[in-house]
């Protein structure tokens, strides 16, 4: 009996375990010091009332024989798909409901979508990157090539016509760098993909953090994207669903290669391996698009944005180079005095009792950079900014 040896090619990702270990060691040796954790990628504000009310109501329906629901549609209930379709309409993107697939989150879909692509495809991934893209393609045994995201390109690499790839991952607003593509730059990627036949897998998990009009909420705001892109989105960071689990994937009917439609393949894949998201959760997700839900989640996003602004102002005052913070809950800063990521982590922990995430953990080009997040409380964020300012002044 054999297992899949591609697992041997995964590099052990010790990043978060190593961070936890170093914080534990420090707090054991310095029990009187309070460490502020500014590295978390999880939200801290609870679900908004519009969502929990909808979920309670749905639970009541589930407790009555006349309104009970069993297995739902693989692709999600039409009430939620219609709500998502209408949301896209608010920024000028016209979708058909059958192009929207509801799932238990973007991570599953980003990993699982690799199954509809040929084994022989070459995958182009930016570095540094959200690790799921790399690891799911390693498990599938595909050839991966990297495009460098660097300070010179603002951590927003553009296509290089000399490079041939079949599948391209783009994440905007980006995790870990917080950088956001302009519509003009996304158009370059779309044109490149349409010219070469590549498919873009566009991760829009943080789209609700966008405040600038020149940035895109969806790749489908870009002309030509319907023939070359799949978009992944999530309620996790925008509506606090990290533990509730719901997301969606958009596959336009026009996206086909070799006469086969990606939408049909994904429907087939989901119908074989997925039995849908709980009814109660989908009713909660639907409420995110209601009038009250929209206002309430906007307040939470504004709260996180306020935190990001506090951190960004602090770095600006110190003259430290950074990206993100404006249209993203992440701030990606250049470690001062040429320090390496882990060196800066240790110094910040030991001298200011602030813990972030070393950029080196997200890829080779992350070395020398550091990620802070805006998902903490206002109090913690304000205190962390004060400590960083005092320590780096
Ligand atoms: N995509 C990016 C870029 C993320 O940072 C995350 C979570 O941190 C996800 C996707 C996963 O989202 P979900 O919770 O919907 O699985």
Keywords:
binds pyridoxal-5'-phosphate, 393 residues, 39% helix
Describe the structure.
With 393 residues, this protein is of the alpha/beta class. The strands form four sheets. A seven-stranded mixed sheet has the order 2-8-7-6-5-3-4, with helices on both faces. Strands 11-12-15-14 form a four-stranded antiparallel sheet. β3, α5 and β4 form a beta-alpha-beta unit. α4 packs parallel to α5. The radius of gyration is 21 Å and the shape is globular. The termini are far apart. It binds pyridoxal-5'-phosphate. Pyridoxal-5'-phosphate (PLP) binds next to α4.
In short:
The chain is of the alpha/beta class and 393 residues long. The protein folds into 2 domains: 5-47 and 292-392, Aspartate Aminotransferase, domain 1 (Alpha-Beta Complex), CATH 3.90.1150; 49-291, Type I PLP-dependent aspartate aminotransferase-like (Major domain) (Aspartate Aminotransferase, domain 2).
The largest sheet has its strands arranged as 2-8-7-6-5-3-4
Overall geometric form:
globular
**Total strand count, please?**
15
Number of domains: 2
Q: Return the string of H and E elements.
A: HEHHEHEHEEHEEHEEEHHHEEHEEEH
Overall average residue pLDDT: 96
Beta content comes to: 15-25%
What CATH first level of the largest domain would be assigned? Alpha Beta
Fraction of helical residues: 25-40%
What's the main sheet like? Answer: 7 strands, mixed
Q: How many H/I helical runs?
A: 12
The CATH superfamily label of the largest domain reads: Type I PLP-dependent aspartate aminotransferase-like (Major domain)
Structural class: alpha/beta
End-to-end span in angstroms?
A: 60 Å
Bound molecules: pyridoxal-5'-phosphate
Assembly level: single chain
CATH architectural arrangement of the largest domain: 3-Layer(aba) Sandwich
CATH topology descriptor of the largest domain = Aspartate Aminotransferase, domain 2
Rg, nearest Å: 21 Å
Low-confidence parts: none
């Amino acid at each position: 009996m054999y297992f899949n040896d591609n697992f041997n090619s995964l590099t052990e990702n010790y990043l978060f375990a190593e961070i936890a270990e170093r914080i534990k060691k420090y707090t054991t040796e310095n029990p009187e010091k309070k460490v502020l954790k500014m590295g978390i990628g999880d939200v801290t504000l609870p679900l908004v009332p519009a969502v929990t009310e909808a979920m309670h109501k749905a639970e009541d329906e589930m407790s009555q024989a006349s309104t009970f629901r069993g297995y739902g549609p693989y692709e999600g209930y039409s009430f939620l798909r219609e709500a998502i379709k209408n949301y896209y309409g608010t920024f000028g993107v016209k979708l058909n409901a059958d192009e929207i697939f509801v799932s238990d989150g973007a991570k599953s879909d980003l990993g699982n979508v690799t199954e509809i692509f040929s084994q022989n495809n070459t995958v182009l991934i930016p570095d540094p990157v959200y690790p799921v893209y790399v690891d799911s393609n390693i498990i599938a045994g595909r050839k991966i090539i990297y495009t460098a995201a660097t300070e010179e390109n603002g951590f927003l690499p553009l296509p290089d016509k000399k490079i041939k790839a079949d599948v391209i991952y783009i994440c905007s607003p980006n995790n870990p760098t917080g950088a956001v593509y302009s519509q003009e730059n996304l158009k370059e990627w779309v044109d490149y993909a349409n010219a070469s036949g590549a498919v873009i897998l566009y991760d829009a998990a943080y789209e609700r953090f966008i405040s600038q009009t020149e940035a895109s909420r969806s790749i489908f705001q870009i002309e030509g994207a319907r023939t070359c892109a799949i978009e992944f989105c999530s309620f996790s960071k925008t509506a606090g669903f990290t533990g509730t689990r719901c997301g969606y994937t958009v596959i336009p009917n026009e996206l086909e290669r070799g006469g086969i439609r990606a939408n049909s393949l994904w429907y087939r894949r989901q119908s074989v391996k997925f039995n849908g998201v709980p009814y109660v959760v989908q009713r909660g997700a639907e409420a995110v698009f209601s009038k009250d839900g929209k206002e309430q989640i906007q307040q939470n996003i504004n709260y996180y944005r306020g935190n990001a602004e506090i951190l960004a102002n602090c770095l600006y005052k110190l003259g430290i180079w950074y990206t993100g913070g404006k249209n993203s809950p992440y701030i990606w800063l250049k470690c001062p005095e040429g320090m390496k990521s882990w060196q800066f982590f240790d110094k910040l922990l030991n001298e200011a009792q602030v813990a972030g995430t070393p950029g080196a953990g997200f890829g080779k080009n992350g070395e020398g950079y550091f990620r802070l997040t805006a998902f903490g409380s206002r109090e913690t964020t304000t205190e962390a900014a004060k400590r960083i300012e005092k320590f780096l002044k």
